[in-house]
Design goal:
mainly beta, Maltoporin, Chain A, 5 helices
């Protein structure tokens, strides 16, 4: 707690110093405001530019919004080679994005997140494109292209951004159709033959209609290297596209149609084998499994089955329609309608063990074949009113998601399933179907009581129903069916029941999990929960372009059902919704030309935090990874960021986030087996320190050419991937360093630059998982470098 107090003192001291300087200076000249389309500007004299954001569902300058927000503009996204959701973590302090191993990205913001790969589970950090929700984390993989900016809003945002935003929200603002003809192209080529090409065309189609088309393609060779043979993995084949039509038949009506999608046919990443750890110590793995070589020490080193194609065919498309009608100058009615569809077929290496020349075959076959399908329909209708000193929003939303998630697991030669009731049980399927229906009504009001004092508050009433149908099943070859017929009859006999009848016996492809009467079949269940997230803000503006704010908010994340291998249907018990109560005190200012400062201290109190943990499913699977609720936990933290422009062309920026997490009440199974009282232990995926430092400089070298360059680093301190686990599951501290150097013409029409990411080739990893008898880790990318160019046609 003393460290938190020191962090709080630091932020308070900086804030006090800022207020003193600002009061003395009393600047009267305000920097230029960014245009409504979101392109931020900087004045030629080097003064701070006001940044426009839409975190409150309306355009406001950053220093008018009493919420912690990180903003990345299009220039930063382009120069830093931001091409995937994972790249954002290098620029946003407190944000972590990990690899679950199941194609679903894991978002964590200020320590708030959950390591849950089930497609229908949702995330604690919600993601939007132009206020349209990407309701499932797996939808978000292709959203980062042709953007005006990205806003990362921290803390519970459940009133305006839905019930699942306990950690915050990531808002992608797409580039919009333009009034005049514009076009552009950008490409890059680098290590591993990685190439990308992106372009857009935008402009008027008639007096009332404007359009924009953008597309991006990526390809690359394998970057992972097998440690047992001459083989590589990691090829990249991606495509994303977006088409927009904006219709403005009059001054009071606007319609925006957005059709977008992406496809990914890249290889899936192979994990690195760290160590063989038997699931059942009494049944050690076969000797040839125990002798499998580890692959740690280098980001590129890994291993995988020789005779399996670890590729994927994942695609997503979405159509959305935004309608806005100005009832009057002060009243606007907005409708947001969207339909999304997703499909994934992918193969994932699970054990990190490959081919053995001595055996003349793959040492072991541990993998997951995933087949996921999901659709989502959302509708929001809201009324925005602005008059006198009052701004308020009132609205309602509806969401309908259908998710079908199938995991086909192979685990030949693992100790726990060898000779199971006379059968070498080598594969099963996990079936998870969830039908999600939710609705909410919300309101947010802001009152500018004086030129210096504004108060605001928001409230949402949510209801969600989930219907579940699932089980663990035979893979279709009859292997698991034969084993489980014997196992189920053994259980029935032990309880004085007759053997399964002919109609009850498990057939190839049928469910192997059984109910309380030891009869195999699907589990059918229903979960309905309601909640009421809210927030209260007090904003004080002591002088121009500065803000001190206090915020209390409450957010919820919906409960859901797990995907897991289980012998009984009781294992499919859902986690209930989590509840987070947040307190935050912060400040923002760019009152001094050339200097911007932000800081905050915060406290999060958790109830029923959702967490990837372990559940004892009984014989034969024993402890398996599933979701659990932690009754009580908390997060204390502080953050500070600064941007200094001491001379024209030079910007120095830095930010630091410190969090201290603690479980207050929870007894559960650790990933290593024993039942543990975890009171006082930290949460996983919660590095104490997240530090970002960046420097950029530009200067004319001829009347028509400008030299620009920059470098940045992103430090993340040590964390653990699992609760109450040994150092085997640690995520060591790491600091990737990126750099850029290039030239552009003085009018900004073209740019040519060289880039390097993780230029020190730092070996690091973002997740550590256990699969059967193996512990594996997923590494970050090794050093990459190359050249990029962009050209704009006007």
């Amino acid at each position: 707690m003393s460290k938190i107090l020191r962090g709080m003192w630091l932020v308070s001291a900086c804030g006090s110093a800022l207020l003193a300087c600002g009061a003395a200076a009393q600047p009267t000249v305000v920097g230029p405001t960014a245009p409504a389309d979101g392109n931020t500007q900087q004045a030629s004299t080097g003064e701070s530019a006001d940044i426009v954001v839409t975190a409150n569902r309306r355009s406001q300058t950053l220093t008018d919004v009493g919420i912690a927000i990180s903003v990345l503009d299009s220039s930063q996204l382009e120069t830093r080679q931001i091409s995937s959701v994972g790249d954002l973590a290098a620029l946003v302090p407190g944000l972590s994005i990990g690899n679950s191993g199941y194609a679903t990205p894991i978002y964590s913001l200020r320590g708030v997140g959950v390591n849950e790969p089930t497609v229908g589970a949702g995330s604690s950090v919600t993601v939007y494109v132009d206020e349209v929700p990407l309701t499932l984390p797996i939808f978000t993989r292709g959203a980062t292209f042709d953007l005006e900016r990205v806003e990362v809003v921290k803390g519970p945002q459940g009133t305006l951004y839905g019930q699942n935003a306990t950690g915050g929200a990531i808002n992608y603002i797409a580039a919009k159709p333009t009034d005049n003809f514009q076009a552009g192209i950008r490409g890059s080529y680098g290590r591993f033959n990685a190439a990308s090409l992106e372009g857009f065309v935008s402009g008027p189609l008639s007096d009332t209609l404007r359009g924009r088309i953008a597309a991006r393609g990526e390809r690359g060779d394998g970057w992972q290297k097998s440690i047992t043979r001459d083989d590589s993995l990691g090829k990249v084949r991606k495509f994303a596209g977006r088409a927009m039509l904006e219709w403005r038949p009059g001054s009071d009506f606007r319609a925006l149609l957005n059709v977008n999608g992406w496809q990914d046919k890249s290889d899936t990443q192979a994990p690195q084998l760290v160590k063989i750890v038997p699931t059942n110590p009494a049944v050690p793995p076969f000797s040839f499994v125990q002798s499998a070589p580890a692959a740690t020490g280098n980001a590129r080193s890994a291993d995988w089955d020789r005779d399996t194609d670890f590729d994927q065919n994942a695609w997503f498309y979405q159509g959305s329609l935004r309608l806005e009608y100005d009832v009057s100058d002060d009243v606007t009615l907005t409708s947001l309608t969207a339909y999304s569809k997703f499909r994934n077929r992918s193969v994932h290496e699970a054990d990190g063990i490959g081919y053995s020349p001595a055996l003349g075959r793959d040492i072991i076959n541990g993998r997951y074949d995933l087949a996921s399908d999901a659709t989502s329909f959302t509708q929001e209708l809201r009324l925005s009113v602005s008059f006198s000193i009052i701004n308020f929003v009132i609205g309602a939303n509806y969401q309908r998601d259908n998710v079908n998630d199938i995991q086909l697991g192979y685990f030949d030669d693992f100790s726990v399933v060898s000779n199971f009731f006379g059968v070498d049980l080598n594969s099963t399927r996990n079936l998870n179907n969830q039908r999600i229906r939710g609705y909410g009504v919300f309101a947010n009001i802001e009152a500018e009581l004086t030129d210096f004092l504004t108060i605001s508050g928001g409230l949402r009433i949510n209801n969600e129903e989930r219907k579940f149908k699932g089980c663990s099943a035979d893979s279709g070859n009859g292997n698991a069916a034969a084993a489980y017929n014997g196992f189920t009859n053994f259980l029935r006999s032990s309880n004085g029941l007759p053997p399964l009848s002919a109609s009850q016996r498990i057939m190839p492809g049928g469910c192997i999990t059984s109910n309380a009467d030891f009869i195999p079949g699907f589990k059918l269940d229903r979960l309905e929960q309601s909640n009421t997230p809210w927030n209260i803000n007090v904003n004080l503006k002591p002088f121009d372009r500065s803000l001190i704010y206090a915020r209390v908010s409450r957010g919820f994340k919906a409960g859901n059902y797990p995907s897991l291998s289980a012998g009984n249907n009781a294992s499919f018990t859902p986690v209930v919704q989590e509840d987070l109560l947040a307190y935050e005190l912060g400040f923002k200012s760019n009152a001094i030309d050339g200097l911007s400062l932000e800081g905050a201290i915060f406290r999060y109190d958790y109830a029923d935090k959702q967490q990837r943990g372990r559940s004892n499913t009984g014989f034969p699977f024993g402890l398996v990874a599933t979701q659990v609720n932690i009754p009580k936990s908390r997060i204390d933290g502080a953050e500070l960021s600064a941007a200094l422009r001491p001379v024209k062309g030079l910007t120095l920026s830095g930010s630091a986030v410190y969090i201290d997490t603690k479980i207050k009440d929870y007894i559960g199974y650790s990933i290593e087996g024993p039942l543990v009282n975890m009171q006082g232990l930290p949460l996983n995926f919660s590095p104490k320190w997240s530090v970002n430092v960046d420097a950029s400089y530009s200067t004319p070298i001829t009347p028509s050419l400008t030299l620009f360059g920059g470098a940045g680093l992103a430090y993340r301190s040590k964390a653990s991937a699992q609760l109450a686990a040994s150092s085997l599951y640690d995520i060591d501290a790491y600091t990737p360093v990126n750099a850029q150097l290039g030239v552009e013409d003085s009018e900004g029409r073209w740019r040519l630059w060289a880039f390097g990411n993780n230029i020190t080739d730092k070996y690091y990893w973002t997740n550590v998982v256990k699969f059967a008898d193996t512990v594996t880790r997923f590494t970050g990318m090794p050093a990459t470098y190359g050249v990029s160019f962009s050209y704009k046609f006007n």
